[in-house]
Amino acid sequence: MVSIVHRTFSDPNSYAQTIRGAHTCDLTVSERGVFDAQLTIIDLDRVWLQRGRDNLARALHIGVEEARRSVVFLADPQAPPHIQSGKEFGADDVASFGQASSHFQRTFGPIDWAAMSLPAGCLEDAARTIAGRDIPDPSTSLWMKPFGEHLNRLRDLHHAVDRMARFDEKALDHPEVQRALEHSLIVAMVACVTAGTDRDRGYGWHRHQQVMRLFKEWLETNLGRAVYLPEICAALDVSAPTLRRCCEEHLGMSPMRYLRLRRMNLVRQQLQQRDSSTSVTAAAMNFGFWHLGRFAAEYHSLFGEMPSVTLAQPPIS
Predict the structure, then answer these.
(1) What CATH number corresponds to the domain at position 263?
(2) Most buried one in 16, 98, 134, 277, CB count within 10 A?
(3) How far is CA 164 from CA 8, 40, 46, 118, 168, in A?
(4) What does the pLDDT look like over 256-280, one tens digit per residue?
(5) Same domain, 70 and 178
């Protein structure tokens, strides 16, 4: 029986942690406003689908799981590009993230994205059977610019299943309907990753990707405290100019700007998930904000409300 989940979110972290196939998600909002996101998850048999929409500019880390192989694209064919893994990613691009790989995504406004996945090895087998072509092993990420008709077909099928999940769920429960949809989706996925232009990436990109992976891993081990650029560079054995280039490529901002936004978002999380001992002063100082007047002004500029207002709201569980 088909499984369908529709959820809406006002908390960026709850949204990030619910995204299927991304076991380590870290979302840092970089634009003022009230965060709003929707996520739909549809499990057929072998094919799992997702569609997500969120409204504010942000940086997102994605740690890809090993059990499945996904194909990701923008659901809106007119969508402006964003930064995906250090390169511009637009409405005519498709990515298939390698298993156990690590990626940053940077958006500059609303995004409407779509993804579908197959169990490990199934996409490779399907490519061999349907297209007579081998694609790299599951650990290798693919970046493709498929022929327009192939991507349009994939996008239309994804949209059709999404609409059925919302308005005609009983039809999706019919086993033959599921089989027909899965066959069409798999053929469309194969077409997108085997035909078109392979956007290969050179040594410099792979080196910067490695630096960003280490950067993220180090941040995860130091999640509960404020961190600063010199100690990160020393820990990663990388120069500040190199880390700056990597962050500007992958995050669209300097590491200093990202770290400050990250600390501000961590304060907000602490205020939202407070216990009886939480205070604005304690939360701010926990993440290195010592000038409380300046902190409050920056917080209001980023989130559209004073930190005391966040603290007064019911906690997010």
Answers:
(1) 1.10.10.60
(2) 16
(3) 18, 12, 18, 20, 4
(4) 899 899 899 989 988 988 776 789 9
(5) yes
Cross-strand pairs, 89: 82
Helical H segments across 107-174, by residue range = 122-126, 148-167, 169-173
Residues 109 and 8 placed together within one structural domain of the fold: yes
Distance CA 78, CA 91 (A): 6
User: How far from chain centre, in Å, is Cα 187?
Assistant: 25
Q: Please report which residue ranges of 198-291 form alpha helices under DSSP H.
A: 203-221, 229-236, 240-251, 255-272, 280-286
Q: Are residues 51 and 185 in the same domain?
A: yes
pLDDT tens-place string over residues 88-141: 999 999 999 888 888 999 999 999 999 999 998 899 999 999 999 888 777 888
Domain span holding position 174: 3-198
Residue after which a domain boundary falls, among 135, 168, 198: 198
Q: Are residues 150 and 288 in the same domain?
A: no
Residues 32 and 111 in one domain: yes
Q: In total, how many domains does the chain have?
A: 2
Pick the closest to residue 89 from 107, 116, 71 (CA basis): 107
What distance in Å separates the CA atoms of residue 113 and residue 13, rounded to the nearest whole number?
17
Across 283-310, b (16+ Cβ under 10 Å) vs e yields bbebbbbeeeeebbebbeebbeeebeeb
First to last CA, the chain: 30
If DSSP codes are grouped into helix, strand and coil, which group holds residue 20? coil
Any domain includes 317: no
Give the H/E segment covering residue 36. Answer: none
pTM of the model: 0.85
- 55 to 22, 38, 110, 247: CA distances (angstroms): 20, 10, 4, 22
Host H or E run for residue 228: none
Q: What does the CA dihedral 313, 32, 90, 93 come to, rounded to 10 degrees?
A: -20
| 35 and 168 co-located in one domain | yes
